[in-house]
Write a structure and sequence with these properties.
By secondary structure, this protein is an alpha/beta fold. The protein is built from ten helices and twelve strands. The strands form four sheets. It has a five-stranded mixed β-sheet with strand order 9-8-10-7-11, with helices on both faces.
Length: 275
């Protein structure tokens, strides 16, 4: 009896100690999260590190090799309003979320669609604009095709690996073969070469590609998917999330974001910078 009592007492003490340790650990984690807020790190170094991938017209290189594009302007404006310098960290799309989580950069500003699966891994700001997934096709290979005709086992559709374009392609054309590429230029080249029937990608890439190669590429007006775009931050970093959310609110209210969107997505005034 006494032995049972001692065992019970030891168990209770153990549970209490573990509970105390868990409580202490939770407190330490919370303090660590606050101490490691991206805002604090940015302020200390005087530089904000921005993760992004290269794709037109979100982020691309001009004739001088400098990064330009809608997301580049967004990131530069965030840095300017924070009073810090900016460092871009080009990262392959398929590994861009893990790179944010492991601290390779402070924030992810790369035209990323907000999805539930992505939100399980990182936090997103409120949307700062919306984009469409479009469909472009090889004129000869897909001659006479309606959109529904692409949903066939005999059809191959290209999309970028890890993108919502890939999700849209699989949802809209479940019977088709989906080929995934690390970057959009490679997928576009395969389409131009006639090695795939079509490609799903975020606008304005389908429309601009059809204009650039009118003898080879055609574009469909139907929207494959409408998407909300947000800036990615690490889980638990509420200070950074709050600051950028407020930045978005300010710059949507004053029309700055809409003006930049119109320039990069609705005009071709920037084309001579890359050609």
């Amino acid at each position: 009896m006494r032995k049972q009592f001692l065992v019970s007492a030891i168990v209770l003490v153990g549970v209490f100690v573990l509970g105390l340790a868990a409580s202490t650990s939770a407190g330490e984690i919370q303090r660590k999260l606050v101490a490691e807020s991206a805002i604090e790190q940015i302020a200390k170094r005087g530089v904000i590190k921005v993760g992004m991938d290269v794709f037109v017209p979100w982020a691309m290189k001009d004739k001088k090799g400098e990064l330009i594009g809608f997301e580049i302007d967004i990131a530069k404006k965030v840095a300017e309003d924070m009073g810090v310098k900016i460092e871009f960290v080009p990262t392959k799309w398929s590994g861009i979320i893990p790179a944010l989580i492991t601290g390779k950069f402070d924030v992810l500003i790369g035209g990323m669609t907000i999805t539930t699966q992505r939100n399980l891994k990182i936090n997103f700001t409120r949307p700062y604009y919306y984009t469409e997934q479009g469909l472009m096709a090889h004129k000869k290979k897909a001659a006479g095709f309606e959109v529904s005709d692409f949903n066939s086992p005999d059809v191959t559709i290209a999309a970028r690996l890890g993108s919502t374009a890939a999700i849209a392609a699989k949802q809209r054309f479940p019977k088709a073969k989906i080929r995934l590429f690390d970057d959009e230029p490679a997928a576009v080249q395969e389409l131009r070469n006639g090695n795939v029937h079509a490609m799903v990608a975020g606008q304005p890439l389908p429309s601009s590609t059809a204009i650039e190669y009118p003898d080879t590429i055609m574009v469909y007006e139907e929207v494959m998917m409408l998407e909300a775009i947000g800036i990615g931050v690490r889980k638990g970093d509420n200070d950074t999330l709050n600051l950028i959310n407020n930045w978005i609110e300010i710059n949507r209210n004053n029309g700055w974001i809409q003006g930049k969107y119109a320039y990069w997505f609705k005009s071709k005034d920037w084309k001579n910078m890359i050609e």
